[in-house]
Amino acid sequence: QVQLVESGGGLVQSGGSLRLSCAASAITFSSANMGWYRQAPGKQREWVAFITSGGTTNYVDSVKGRFTISRDNARNTATLQMNRLKPEDTAVYYCSAVLPPGELYWGTGTLVTVSS
Questions:
Q1: Of 38, 44, 32, 43, which is closest to residue 18 (Cα–Cα)?
Q2: Under a CB-based contact definition with an 8 Å cutoff, are residues 49 and 93 in contact?
Q3: Which of 78, 60, 62 is nearest to 70 (CA)?
Q4: What percent of the chain has pLDDT over 90?
Q5: Positions in the chain whose pLDDT score sits under 70
Q6: DSSP states of 94-110 as a string?
């Protein structure tokens, strides 16, 4: 059974940093395109960042220069390093995995709260 388990969320002051991790199991991790999404209270889930199986990355404009996505294929882990956090980054953050030819999996989410 495929599992994506996020960790690393919490409460941080504005300007602080957090590091989110997504541990994947029961998938061929090296073949997966990994992504991070977030959902703020009362808002729709939005894409934040992705990293392809080949290591190409992309970010939503609002986090460029502050967030960094990476992957460790040996540990089946994707990471989102979040720096210079802002109150508007407050959300539940979800990890996603897309496997060829298009199977999509979600984690259960981890809450990030940024206080002003």
A1: 38
A2: no
A3: 78
A4: 97
A5: none
A6: EEEEEETTTEEEE---E
Which residue(s) pair with 17 in the sheet?
A: none
C-alpha 18/C-alpha 5 separation (Å) is 16
Question: CB–CB of 115/14 below 8 Å?
Answer: yes
Distance CA(13)–CA(84), nearest Å, equals 9
* Residue pLDDT, tens place only, 5-32: 999 999 999 999 999 999 999 999 999 9
Number of CB atoms found within 10 A of residue 107's CB? 21
Which phi and psi (to 5°) does residue 103 adopt?
Answer: -75, 130
| CB 6 within 8 Å of CB 94 | yes
Which tokens hold the place of 74?
């040996």
Whether the Cβ atoms of residue 110 and residue 92 lie closer than 8 Å to each other: yes
